[in-house]
């Protein structure tokens, strides 16, 4: 029997993307289809989404959905069912998804994403004619009101079970208590076992409290959020639901991330033709105005934020150059960090190249042409860039945390001797620990045999969705059997 799942998120690749969340949501339908699960994805009708489904039929109408008219439009993406919440007043805004062009959160974000949750709960409780789902699967705070509405204020009687996935518990969707009375929830739900969170309305908190199961995107992160260092104020709730918390590592979509058929590369390659990868290195040098050379190129493809350890990296750039290495950085974020990396590029012309912004095709070229990818995150629920690096022979250099610790095998003496190393891990995000990691990396790079072994080990690793998809399918069926 097919299990039907409504997957709800604020973004999904290839329709709309700001980060790894979109990649995961976009990959889940195909990953789960192989395990007897049909996933229908529900996302907001942002401009790019509306353009992609132009002309799609409206299958439901809400005259008043949290204060605005909304339509449900049906389409498909990559052959899988798609539902779009078409609420122009909420979502038809050009520019960033969650902020204005100045980077300030939209003041009605609470209303926009409560509407997404309300629509999801209507669909998952049988209140929308023609739709029935076994499971409501919500991703991050923007979708977290779905499980909350489903438990606290369902509009139908055929109520699905629910799963809440935390991609990053630091982003919680906490809003002033004054909005509570506009959410359409029972008065008693502004409480410890409802949506109340330190005197505010907590969207993620409500989803975590309400869901039948909680997943995080790696086993190590699932353990880390049980404590105050990584739980971000929600660790007590997580501990209280310990039997319902599961860590399932993210996968990557080999149809999108595969150096053998990636059109963004200057030269496609496989493990058997690894030497031809050098053409991509030359293309990276040209794209970032780096001096041609044989020394290693480190890359960074990241948000430039404190969480990602970019402040520490900015402090050690002179040391990186002193090792004989070069850096190609693609990212955006904190204005001070953007300035620090630009200044470093001016200070070290030909050795450091910086592109502020995001470019999907360029990110593929960097994975296929740089020698090592730097990920010095203070915490990292899963991370996808290290998985892309492994698949493309771009050796990950990572902090030992979350999904980074779960997916990269450190090149310590034992792992090198056993021939199983895939990258470099370091403990503690500090200037000294990162300097040591950089020196370890450049030393290993000089050992051509050891370096190639790590590249080939990474490319041979299976981080497709096959195993993770099965874990999700088993979780869904265990909920339906409860």
Question: What features would you describe in this structure?
Answer:
By secondary structure, this protein is of the alpha/beta class. It folds into two domains: 3-251 and 465-481, Rossmann fold; 271-460, 3-Layer(aba) Sandwich (Rossmann fold), CATH 3.40.50. Helices cover 38% and strands 20% of the residues. The strands form three sheets. The chain has a nine-stranded mixed beta sheet, sandwiched between helices. A hairpin with a 2-residue loop joins strand 3 (58-65) and strand 4 (68-77). Helix 4 (109-124) packs across helix 6, helix 6 (145-152) packs across helix 7 (203-210) and helix 11 packs across helix 15 (360-369). The longest helix has 16 residues, at 109-124. The radius of gyration is 23 Å and the shape is globular. The protein starts with a strand and ends with a helix. The mean pLDDT is 96. ADP-alpha-D-glucose binds at residue 17. GO terms for molecular function: alpha-1,4-glucan glucosyltransferase (ADP-glucose donor) activity; alpha-1,4-glucan glucosyltransferase (UDP-glucose donor) activity. Synthesizes alpha-1,4-glucan chains using ADP-glucose. It catalyses: [(1->4)-alpha-D-glucosyl](n) + ADP-alpha-D-glucose = [(1->4)-alpha-D-glucosyl](n+1) + ADP + H(+).
Notable traits:
482 residues, alpha/beta, Rossmann fold, 2 domains, 38% helix, 20% strand
Quick summary of this structure?
This protein has about 475 residues and is of the alpha/beta class. It has two domains: about 5-250 and about 465-480, Rossmann fold (3-Layer(aba) Sandwich), CATH 3.40.50; about 270-460, Glycogen Phosphorylase B (Rossmann fold, 3-Layer(aba) Sandwich).
């Amino acid at each position: 029997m097919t299990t039907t799942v409504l997957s709800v998120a604020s973004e999904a690749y290839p329709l709309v993307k700001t980060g790894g969340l979109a990649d995961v949501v976009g990959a889940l339908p195909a990953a789960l289809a192989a395990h007897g699960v049909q996933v229908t994805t529900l996302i907001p009708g942002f401009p790019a989404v509306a353009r992609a489904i132009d002309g799609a039929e409206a299958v439901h109408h809400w005259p008043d959905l949290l204060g605005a008219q909304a339509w449900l439009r049906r389409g498909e993406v990559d052959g899988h069912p798609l539902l779009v919440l078409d609420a122009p007043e909420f979502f038809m805004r050009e520019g960033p998804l969650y902020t204005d062009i100045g980077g300030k959160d939209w003041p009605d974000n609470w209303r926009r994403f409560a509407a997404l949750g309300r629509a999801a709960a209507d669909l998952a409780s049988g209140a929308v004619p023609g739709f029935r789902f076994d499971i409501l699967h919500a991703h991050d705070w923007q979708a977290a009101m779905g499980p909350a509405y489903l438990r606290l204020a369902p509009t139908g009687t055929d109520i699905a079970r629910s799963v809440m996935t935390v991609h990053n518990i630091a982003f919680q969707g906490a809003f002033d208590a004054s909005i509570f009375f506009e959410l359409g929830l029972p008065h008693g739900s502004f409480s410890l076992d409802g949506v109340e969170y330190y005197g505010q309305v907590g969207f993620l908190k409500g989803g975590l409290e309400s869901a039948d199961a909680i997943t995080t995107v790696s086993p190590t992160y699932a353990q880390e959020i049980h404590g105050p260092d990584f739980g971000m104020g929600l660790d007590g709730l997580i501990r209280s639901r310990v039997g319902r918390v599961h860590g399932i590592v993210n996968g990557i979509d080999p149809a999108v991330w595969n150096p053998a058929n990636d059109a963004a590369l200057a030269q496609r390659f496989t493990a058997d033709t690894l030497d031809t990868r050098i053409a991509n290195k030359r293309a990276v040098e040209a794209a970032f105005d780096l001096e041609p050379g044989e020394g290693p190129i480190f890359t960074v493809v990241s948000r430039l934020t404190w969480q990602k350890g970019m402040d520490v990296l900015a402090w050690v750039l002179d040391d990186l150059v002193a090792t004989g290495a070069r850096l190609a950085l693609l990212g955006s974020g904190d204005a001070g960090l953007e300035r620090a990396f630009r200044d470093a590029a001016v200070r070290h012309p030909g050795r450091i190249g910086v592109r502020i912004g995001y470019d999907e095709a360029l990110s593929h070229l960097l994975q296929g042409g740089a020698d090592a990818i730097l990920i010095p995150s203070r915490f990292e629920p899963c991370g996808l860039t290290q998985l892309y690096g492994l698949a493309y022979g771009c050796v990950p250099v990572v902090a030992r945390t979350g999904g980074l610790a779960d997916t990269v095998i450190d090149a310590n003496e034992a792992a090198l001797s056993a021939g199983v190393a895939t990258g470099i891990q370091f403990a503690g995000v500090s200037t000294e620990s990162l300097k040591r990691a950089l020196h370890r990396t450049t030393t290993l790079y000089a050992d051509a045999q050891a370096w190639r072994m790590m590249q080939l080990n990474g490319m041979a690793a299976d981080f497709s969705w096959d195993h993770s998809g099965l874990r999700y399918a088993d979780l869904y069926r265990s909920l339906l059997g409860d």
